[in-house]
Structure formats: C-alpha cells, structure tokens
Amino acid sequence: MYKLLSHNDLDGVGCGLLAKLAFGDSVDVRYNSIGSLDREVKYFLENHDGEIELIITDMSVNEENEKKLQAFHSTGGNVQLIDHHKSALHFNEYDWGHVVVEDEKGKQTSATSLLYEYLINNELLGATKVISAFVELVRQYDTWEWEKNNNLQAKRLNTLFFLLSIDEFAEKMINRLKSSDHFYFDDFEEKILEMEEAKIERYIRRKRRELVQSEIEGKFAGIVYAESYHSELGNELGKEYPHLDYIAILNMGGKRLGFRTIHDHVDVSEIAGTYGGGGHEKASGATLTDDAYKRFIANTFKLDPLKEDAKRNKFNVKDTSFGSMYKDRSGDLYMIYQENGEWKIDKNKVRFEQSFSSFEEAETYLKRKYAAWLEKDELFVQYLMEQVKQKN
Ligand SMILES: [Mn+2]
C-alpha cells in the first residue's frame, strides 16, 4: 500500500493522478494546503502500520517532521519526498529526499514531471504519449513557462482545474490518460472554458478602471482590489500600465496582498519580503500587516483611479516625432514630441527643462508624475485647429 500526500494545486494534483495510474487502488491520495501537510505527516507517523510506503510531493515538511521522517526511514520505514522548490533543496541530504529545481538541460521542473520520471525509472509506470503531454502542460503551467511559449492549453488546463472539484477533475483526467492516445479537452470542457475566459475578460476590463497608482518605498505600484484571477489580472494590468513597477492586488476578506510584475528589473519576492511574505520573482504574496495596510490601503484610499489611454486613435498616437497629447485629472494638457533627436514634454505649452532619450522614458515620467493619459483623437484635433486659428 502507498500513501501520497500532495499539494492541492494543479501540480500537486497532477502527482495524485500519476500515483493513481501507477498504483490504482493501492494508493491513498490526500491533497493538502501548505498549512495542513505537517499535521497529516504527524498523524501518519503516529498511526501508520508498517506496510505503507509514504510519498510526499510538491511540498516539504517542517523541521520536527523532517527528523521524525529520518527516524522512520532509518528504522526501515518507506518514505520518499519529491519536490522542486528551492526552499526544499536540503532534503537531498537524505536518501529519501529528491529535490530538483532545474534539470541537466536547464529546464525548470515541476513535482509532476519529477514524479513521472521517478515512476518510469522505477518501472512503476510506463511512459505514454498522452501522459507525457499532460505532464508537460502541468510543468509549463506551474513554472509559468506557458506564458513565454504562449501555451494556452496549459493555461486552460489550470482554468479547468479551478472550475471543477478536485475529485471531478481527477476522475476525468485519469480516464483520459488511460484511454486516449493524445491530450484534449472535450466539447463540454471547451464550452465552459470559453465561458470562463469571457467572464475573466469582463472582470479584468472592470478592474482596469479601478487601478490607482502610488509610489511606495521608491517603486511605483498599481493597486487594485480583487478576490480572484490574480495571475490574469496582474499580467493584464502590468501590460496596460508598463510605467508601473508592479501590481499589488488586495484581498480584503482574506487579509492578503499579492504582487505581480511583468518587468525583469523588479523582483516582487523582495517586495513581499518587506511585509513578511515571499514567493517568486514575478509573483509573490504577503499577509496584510498594519504597515502594508497603511501604505497600500489607508494612504491610497482617496486617490482617483488611473484613466486608460485612448485605444482607437488614428491621429493622437504614441511615439511620433510630431507629438502625442496627454491630459491629467486637473485638466492640464501635455505634449510629448521629438526635437533634435531628444524627447521633450510641454505642459500647457510650457516646455519642461528635462529631456528624455526615448518616447517610453518621457511617457513613464509623465504617467508617474501626473497620472496622465493619452487623449482621444477628437480633443487632439480640436486642439490642433485652435492652434491654427491662433496663428492666423
Ligand atoms: Mn509545484
């Protein structure tokens, strides 16, 4: 008999599916949140009978359980821990620890891809095309490689995972991995994925109009309140407002704060760290401490949201030497234009002293300092006509 304790996200559940495929009814699979694994391990160690082999995937245990597992192992107990998180690398000191963050080819791993390899190498599961395809989708989602590769199927797999209960998802996938020769979504899944994607799009459009910006600890943050779709939201808002260093997403009910960035010059795990949290370079989170509450909520509550740039313009467009017109909430008008190879800004026809080496640099300055937006064509044309009249 086997007992598998795994994480309750897509990668963790991917491990559960592989274990079911390999061991069938001889494995008892339990999914855990980060907070509940140590309780489960402790319970297992106090209540197991000698026959059961314990496998832990996509998570690692605290120091107390680490010692107890080593004692369990050294007295003949069967245990295997398979993980891909940097923070778990020290488990490689044990015979029963197998932690790999990146494989020999420099490819980032996931728990599902590591367990798959483990099961194949130990001749507990045969590799098939459909299982390999599924494992790769999970790996790309978990490591965010899907985004770089624009692998929408990987993203959709995770969306489907959240639409169904874990049991429903597991049952559907196990059947598919057993019986199909390639990976696919069925018609019903395609339909609910389409509906969900349309819903996410509407949600993001609404949230785009609620974003406020604030300079916090020397970095420019876009701040938005949202309970769901944090990854999609962080990504879309980051692209819409590239002058912001990162997006902070507030979940008031959960008293949590998430950070996302699209920029390579920003490491949001460091930002989360200043509030006692952590995570990855591009995505991280922290608990809403009093300090974070003050900076992100109290100090920004009265701010007006950013206005989006006009999207369908033909004349007032960005990055033209002739000029692009912006406006801010106090009604001031700005022009960004090129002159003698440098980029300049006029505010109400008065030139700023600074010049900029690129359009982006000038626009970032303008947006950070004045929260200005690209004006619509109508107002731009009207403005130019007035200029002409004045000259005559
Ligand atoms: Mn994982």
Element layout with pairings:
Blueprint: E1 2-7, H1 10-23, E2 27-32, H2 37-47, E3 53-57, H3 63-74, E4 79-83, E5 97-99, H4 111-121, H5 129-143, H6 145-149, H7 152-163, H8 166-179, H9 187-208, E6 212-216, E7 219-225, H10 230-240, E8 246-251, E9 256-260, H11 268-273, E10 278-279, E11 283-287, H12 290-297, E12 324-327, E13 333-339, E14 342-347, E15 350-351, H13 359-370, E16 373-374, H14 377-391
Helix pairs in contact: 1-4, 1-5, 1-8, 2-3, 4-5, 5-7, 7-9, 9-10
Manganese (II) ion is lined by residues 11, 58, 84, 110-111, 142.
Descriptive account of the structure:
It contains 14 helices and 16 strands. The longest helix has 22 residues. Helix 1 packs antiparallel against helix 5. The strands form three sheets. Strands 6-7-8-9-11-10 form a six-stranded mixed β-sheet. A five-stranded parallel β-sheet has the order 2-1-3-4-5, sandwiched between helices. It is elongated. By secondary structure, it is of the alpha/beta class. The model has no long low-confidence stretch (mean pLDDT 94). The chain has three domains: 184 residues, 3-Layer(aba) Sandwich (Rossmann fold); 93 residues, Diaminopimelate Epimerase, Chain A, domain 1 (Roll), CATH 3.10.310; 68 residues, no CATH class. It binds manganese (II) ion. The site of manganese (II) ion has 6 residues, from loops.
